[in-house]
Amino acid sequence: MLSGASVSVPIPGTLKAKAWKTGMNPSAVKSASYTAKTPDPDPDLGPSVRANGERGSVRVRQGQTVAITVTMAAGEYIGINADWWVVAIPSYGQIWYYMKALMEWVEFPANDLSAMQPALQGPLMNVPESVTVLPAMTLPRGTYIFYFAVDQMDGILNYPDGPMLVDSVTVVVE
Ligand SMILES: [Ca+2]
Predict the structure, then answer these.
(1) What's the pTM value of the predicted model, to 2 decimals?
(2) Closest to 168 measured CA to CA, from 89, 74, 62
C-alpha cells in the first residue's frame, strides 16, 4: 500500500505492506495504523475502488442504489504478476463476499480469508476507465466495506504479511 495511507481492514491490528518487484528483494515494511479513515494521499497509484463514483466513505438512504467501480494505476508495478481481489464485507451477519470473476460474487464465512479466490490472476496493468464490479443495486440498511487489492500471484490472500496494494470504500446505507 501507499506510504502514509490509512485503510480499513476487517481485523484489528496493524496492516503491514511491502512493495515488491520481480527479482528484487522486498522493500522495507511499511506499517500503517488504520483507525482513521483518511483519503488516500496518492490516489493516482495502485488500486482504487469507488461507490457511486466517490472514494473513501459514501452514505446513501435505504432504497437508493449503490454501484461499485474500480480502477488501477499500476505505476512502477506494471507487468508484475498479481492476484486481484475484490471483497465486500457487510457490518452485519456472518457472510462476506468475494468476486470470483467480473460481477460474479461468491459468499463465504466471515473472517475465513482462506475461502477466497482471486477475481483475476495476471500482470498488473493500468485500468484507467472505471470497471463495474457491482452494478447499481439497493442494499439492506447497514455498513459495507468494499476492498480492491492486489498482491503476489500465488492464489492466496497475502494478509496480514503482505506485500499488498489495497484500497477500500465504506458504504453506509441509512
Ligand atoms: Ca496472493
Answers:
(1) 0.77
(2) 89
